[in-house]
Design goal:
Elements lengths: L18 E3 L32 H7 L7 E4 L5 E2 L20 E7 L18 H7 L3 E3 L2 E2 L5 H10 L3 H4 L15 H7 L3 E6 L16 E4 L15 H15 L6 E7 L19 H17 L8 H7 L4 H32 L6 E7 L4 E2 L5 E2 L6 H4 L3 E4 L8 E3 L3 E2 L3 H8 L22 H4 L3 E5 L9 E7 L2 E8 L9 E5 L16 H17 L18 H7 L34 E2 L2
Parallel strand pairs: 4-9, 4-10, 5-14, 6-15, 7-8, 7-9
Antiparallel strand pairs: 1-2, 2-3, 5-13, 8-20, 10-13, 11-12, 16-17, 17-18, 18-19
Helix pairs in contact: 6-9, 7-9
């Protein structure tokens, strides 16, 4: 099947402060892809596909990306800021006690944003934040699984180091989380999650004073209509803030599931990129897929579609349109949250971070969803920071990094002490020649089956202009070599073909580096819990609803999914635990 095409962005001139990455001087014809009859959505300047933005392309070529071009309301260029001096540290003075909001959008890949070359203005507000704050142009998630990714963000440990890799496992109590560090520094902490495993069920509630789980994309009752997790999250966040009677600053973590809603987001935003007829066809097929297999799209989706006699190419296009509408809806809710925080006096005294858990595939290499891939479509994530108190203009960090770096970087930016034992490094310091080795390193990622599906085991190292993926076990049914090595100067395009045999010396150096990382940082770092807690009665049903208990075979109990879609009214049954203070 063919992947969903991506086209170059044509920005409307009236958009305020949208970041459009300029091509490097002398880029010439190499930046212009040739047309082909079978376009693909993969993030590379390859035949039939839209090229990366200059930021992504510059990073892929091993050079610093060009500075952003900012546009005013009339489409006129605003002068780009000069690079920050080497050694300059971007940080608030100690004792500033600013608020920290960490907003995670589950399933948002970096290449879904206009600044990375996408042709749709899916996230206007996020683009505006890029024009006001700090953007990390080459950030990677360390895992294509949500729970594992969040655990790494909150602990600054890689997946093998913290051990929370299989759905239903728990983060050991010996972990030191970002929430615990913030609470030790006098912060009130709160977690608002639309994922049932990002919370108490997985031990990710450590350090939070208040935890509120809301019904997300998948609960015990099958989803029957558009979801609005970000709107519900906003109401919960603001209600908690309004109840506060403490002068302490706040640390708030939010996980929105809008992009993974199987039926998209509510109209009109959720239907922005589709029409009624196509949405009706998509929703009927999606309902039948859910009867075959609960949970998100994944490695079996193509086979399941063929069993339903539904065209995988058409479904990929329709699913992408619904997904884009959900992004547009989530972005509108982000704007509402920003306005509400501003009116309550939080925004100008806060570091507000927007990032993601992982990206999503829509037919690339025959894959849908996430979990079975370490390609850029699944791992490249946006990292955008607004910090009005210290960021007076747009700024960029252009070198490769990964999401374990968030923990130490956020603490450093807020003028708070950074504890020892973290695997991430501070990314708010412009390196000097002397400090380059300490402040720059490759990005790493790894994946293993989170449930019963044989999604494979692999690890990845990326430091532009090269990337290496090592497979211990390929996803079942998908041919993979022992190793894939990609170079940015490959004329076929980034991640289009492995050049492992064509560049053996360089590939071996990368492999040695990755193997060294696996020996040192890719091993357990936490003391296991002495006694296993009593299993939560909700856990098995949550795992079933997310699809983790089902292997390759269709769900026999559902009657193979060929029945009519559910006809109940739109909406979802509550699946979340009640909100509660954390002792």
């Amino acid at each position: 099947m063919r992947a969903v095409p991506r086209r170059r962005l044509r920005l409307p001139p009236a958009l305020l402060l949208v970041i459009v990455m300029a091509l490097p001087a002398g880029a010439g014809k190499a930046a212009s892809p040739a047309k082909a009859p079978s376009p693909s959505r993969e993030p590379a300047a390859t035949p039939g596909e839209a090229p990366l933005s200059a930021a992504a392309q510059g990073s892929a070529n091993g050079a610093d990306p060009a500075p952003p071009v900012l546009l005013d309301q009339e489409g006129k260029k605003i002068a780009a800021p000069p690079p920050r001096p080497q050694g300059e540290r971007l940080a608030a003075p100690p004792g500033s006690r600013h608020h920290l909001f960490l907003y995670l959008i589950d399933g948002l890949g970096a290449f879904e944003l206009p600044a990375h070359g996408y042709d749709r203005m899916t996230m206007t507000n996020v683009s505006t934040l890029m024009g006001e704050g700090m953007t990390y142009l080459a950030a990677y998630s360390v895992s294509p699984w949500t729970v594992t990714s969040v655990a790494s963000i909150l602990t600054s440990l890689y997946p093998s180091a913290h051990g929370l890799q299989k759905a239903g496992d728990r983060l050991p109590a010996s972990a030191k989380t970002l929430a615990e560090v913030m609470r030790e520094n006098g912060y009130q902490t709160a977690l608002f999650s639309a994922h049932p495993l990002v919370g108490a069920l997985s031990g990710l509630d450590q350090g939070f004073d208040w935890i509120e789980e809301i019904p997300g994309p998948f609960g015990p009752a099958p989803p029957r209509g558009p979801g609005e997790t970000s709107a519900t999250l906003n109401r919960s966040i603001l209600a908690w803030l309004d109840r506060r009677n403490s002068p302490a600053p706040v640390f708030v973590v939010v996980l929105s599931g809008d992009p993974l809603e199987p039926f998209g987001a509510p109209a009109p935003e959720g239907r922005r990129f589709t029409d009624d007829a196509e949405y009706k066809w998509y929703s009927e097929v999606r309902a039948r897929l859910l009867r075959i297999r609960p949970g998100n799209l994944g490695m079996t989706t193509v086979a399941d579609l063929k069993a339903l006699k539904a065209d995988p190419d058409r479904f990929a296009r329709a699913a992408r349109n619904v997904y884009d509408g959900a992004l547009y809806y989530n972005d509108a809710q982000l704007r509402s949250l920003r306005d509400a925080l501003n009116s309550r006096g939080y925004w100008k005294k806060a570091l507000f971070v927007v990032t993601s858990t992982h990206g999503e595939d829509f037919g690339e290499r025959g894959l849908f969803g996430h979990g079975a891939s370490l390609y850029d479509s699944a791992l490249r994530v946006p990292v955008v920071m607004s910090y009005p108190a210290i960021l007076a203009r747009a700024d960029q960090m252009r070198r490769t990094c990964d999401t374990v770096d968030l923990f130490p970087t956020l603490l450093s930016m807020m003028g708070l002490p950074v504890p020892s034992g973290l695997q991430g490094i501070q990314r708010n310091v412009e390196p000097t020649v002397a400090t380059r080795k300490e402040t720059q390193r490759p990005a790493f990622a790894e994946t293993s089956p989170a449930g019963a599906l044989p999604t494979g085991r692999a690890s990845m190292i990326c430091e532009m202009p090269t990337k290496l993926i090592l497979y211990e076990e390929a996803p079942q049914g998908y041919a993979r070599p022992e190793a894939e090595f990609f170079r940015a100067n490959d004329p076929t395009g980034w991640e289009k073909r492995s050049v492992y045999m064509a560049a053996p010396i360089l590939a071996q150096k990368r492999r040695d580096f990755l193997e060294g990382w696996r020996l040192v940082k890719g091993k357990p770092q936490l003391v296991p819990d002495a006694g296993a807690p009593s299993p939560d009665p909700r856990l098995r049903e949550v795992l079933r609803s997310l699809g983790y208990l089902q292997g390759l075979a269709p769900d026999v109990a559902s009657g193979s999914g060929k029945g009519d879609p559910p006809k109940a009214p739109a909406g979802k049954s509550p699946a979340a635990a009640p909100a509660k203070p954390k002792n």
